[in-house]
Specification:
The complex is a heterodimer of chains A (about 210) and B (about 325).
Chain A: E1 2-3, H1 4-32, H2 37-55, H3 60-74, H4 79-94, E2 99-100, H5 102-120, H6 130-139, H7 144-156, H8 181-199
Antiparallel strand pairs in A: 1-2
Helix pairs in contact in A: 1-2, 1-3, 1-8, 2-3, 3-4, 4-5, 5-6, 6-7, 6-8, 7-8
Chain B: H1 11-22, E1 26-29, E2 34-37, E3 47-54, E4 71-77, H2 83-93, E5 99-104, H3 107-122, E6 127-132, H4 152-165, H5 170-182, E7 184-190, E8 210-213, E9 224-227, H6 231-243, E10 252-258, H7 264-280, E11 285-291, E12 301-308, H8 311-318, E13 321-322, E14 327-328
Parallel strand pairs in B: 3-4, 3-5, 5-6, 10-11
Antiparallel strand pairs in B: 1-2, 2-4, 7-8, 7-12, 8-9, 10-12, 13-14
The chains are: A mainly alpha (about 210), B alpha/beta (about 325).
């Protein structure tokens, strides 16, 4: 089962991976965006970790809600509201449970991803974070490893796409051939989730 | 790329500290990143709040003052500010007459201002919004995030600001802001890419001898790249792109806007060409403004904005204004 401690470990690992990959995310954001995705997410995740250390939320839902609110108030741009909404709405869907299993997380994540789609108005294929998150939420019903694989494949699959939402849409045809930075950071979050689950021996938690 | 900074992380805060030192008539909260005119809130007057990524100075903080904005929220470089800033600004300027959010049409700005409007209303502040989307370079609005907000922002902030200063109610100030946006169109070109402090190198590669047509104000590349053109050729292209979309029957306000890295001498020369094209196309010019107003850090290039005005809008344009970036009549 996954408790608040597990979710804190996930976000802490995600923060360290954002730190590690910040320059790469910013580089991906240069040809089709405005060259700040890595630095913006880094600022947000550093703030999230500081707040979690301070507040110690005691349920999985509360951890994600606190983290989501912190992202909204520190990241700015489109990423702040979108990632903030993803975590807040996923957290809200988990309710007050002290522990959740993978199936419950998969269902909650689906709610969070739907909220992101509703807020940003994108659908899969528009070259956005949804191209990693939608397949990941579906694959999480199977396993953490499958979710990671689906998210990473989804991010890679954005390269030949024509951007239809967000700032990359302004460059039109020239967005083709570049991997989407938002899908890439989404895949990174899902990979950190799978890594945390693997390290915790949680790969088999399923609510049979 | 050499920059006149300490470290990239403090560029926005350093700029705000300097703004505060130069303009004691503004209240600058460096920590919370909110700039407010010192005499706010003004009894019975609508508050005007705008904001956006930093790197476009003097927009928006440089347009705070009597006759224009009541407050501005600067975000990180090229990054929308966060809802907390906007709520704080709204609370600082609301006299009970309500607050108008002036939002440039970028996904991030729209999402953050929407969240802020909900939060401000929870605090009992009446909020109205106007979306600025004047950039004709974005033609396929169905398959993009829609037209960007660029030069029209200056006209919306000035004209709505003058209306608010006269004590017009919120719905009228909002209606004027919308009218201005609907009657304004822009087109921009870049002669060089932009270098952000965080990245330290140009965000896209623009070879010598080429220019980008239809750029935005965030260092995002344009829609099309061509071999370098003369000032006159660029003026023909840019003005015609605007006039294809806006066929003015009334006189226009002209903004020949530098992107930050083009000398004023070149901008005035470009303005001469813009006026030539407008005259050839039989467009009457009411007023002209030339300078760096809606910039993109160190990008070389310019944009042309035309704002069609009736007598009432022209009167609001001529009304006194006193801000760091725009000042006349007082």
């Amino acid at each position: 089962m996954l408790d608040a401690e597990f979710f804190c470990r996930w976000l802490t690992l995600a923060a360290s991976w954002v730190e590690r990959d910040a320059d790469r995310l910013t580089a991906l954001d240069s040809p089709i965006g405005d060259a700040d995705h890595g630095s913006n997410l880094l600022r947000g995740f550093r703030a999230v970790i500081a707040t979690l250390d301070e507040q110690h939320p005691d349920t999985p839902g509360a951890v994600l809600a606190v983290a989501g609110r912190r992202l909204v108030s520190t990241v700015g741009g489109a990423s702040g509201p979108l990632y903030g909404t993803l975590l807040r709405r996923t957290g809200k869907a988990l309710g007050d449970a002290v522990e959740v299993d993978r199936d419950e997380l998969a269902e909650a994540l689906r709610t969070g991803v739907d909220a992101v789609a509703g807020l940003g108005g994108a659908t899969p294929g528009d070259k956005t974070m949804l191209d990693a998150l939608v397949p990941a939420a579906t694959a999480l019903r199977t396993s953490f490893a499958a979710a990671r694989e689906a998210a990473e494949q989804g991010a890679l699959a954005t390269t030949p796409m024509l951007a239809r939402k967000g700032r990359a849409s302004y460059v039109g045809e020239r967005s083709i051939g570049h991997q989407d930075p938002g899908a890439t950071s989404s895949a990174l979050l899902v990979a950190a989730l799978a890594e945390t689950a693997g390290a915790s021996g949680e790969e088999d938690t399923s609510g049979e | 790329m050499k920059m006149l900074i300490n470290v990239a992380e403090t560029v926005v805060a350093d700029g705000l500290r300097g703004l505060a030192a130069a303009h004691p008539e503004l209240t600058v909260d460096v920590e919370s990143r909110v700039v407010v005119r010192r005499d706010a809130p003004l009894e019975g007057r609508v508050g005007l709040v705008s904001g956006g990524g930093s790197g476009h100075e003097p927009l928006h903080a440089g347009f705070v003052g009597p006759g224009m904005l009541s407050a501005a929220c600067p975000g990180e470089v090229f990054t929308s500010p966060v809802p907390d800033q906007m709520v704080r600004a709204a609370a600082a300027v609301d006299s009970g007459a309500g607050v108008l959010f002036i939002v440039k049409n970028y996904t991030g700005d729209v999402l953050n201002f929407d969240m802020a409007a909900e939060l401000a209303e929870d605090e009992g502040i009446q909020v109205a919004k106007v979306l600025v989307n004047d950039d004709v370079a974005v033609t396929d609005s169905l398959y993009t995030a829609g037209r960007r907000g660029t030069g029209a922002t200056l006209f919306v902030e000035k004209l709505a600001g003058a209306a608010a200063e006269e004590g017009r109610p919120l719905e009228q100030v909002q209606a004027i802001a919308r009218q201005v946006n609907e009657n304004t169109r822009s087109f921009g070109v870049a002669l060089s890419a932009v270098t952000t402090p965080a990245k330290g190198s140009p965000t896209f590669d623009l070879p010598a001898g080429e220019l980008e047509l239809g750029i935005g104000i965030h260092g995002e590349p344009g829609r099309e790249r061509r071999a370098m053109m003369t000032s006159g050729e660029i003026a023909d292209f840019a003005v015609d792109a605007v006039l294809e979309d806006l066929q003015p029957s009334n006189p226009v306000l002209v903004l020949v806007n530098g992107m930050g890295g083009t000398p004023l001498l070149e901008l005035y020369g470009f303005n001469a060409e813009v006026q030539r094209v407008l005259s050839q196309r039989r467009v009457a010019v009411a007023r002209t403004l030339v300078g760096n107003y809606v910039t993109s850090l160190d990008m070389a290039g310019a944009s042309v904005t035309l704002c069609q005005v009736d007598e009432e809008l022209l009167r609001l344009w001529d009304a006194p204004v006193s801000t760091p970036g725009l000042r006349w009549g007082m």
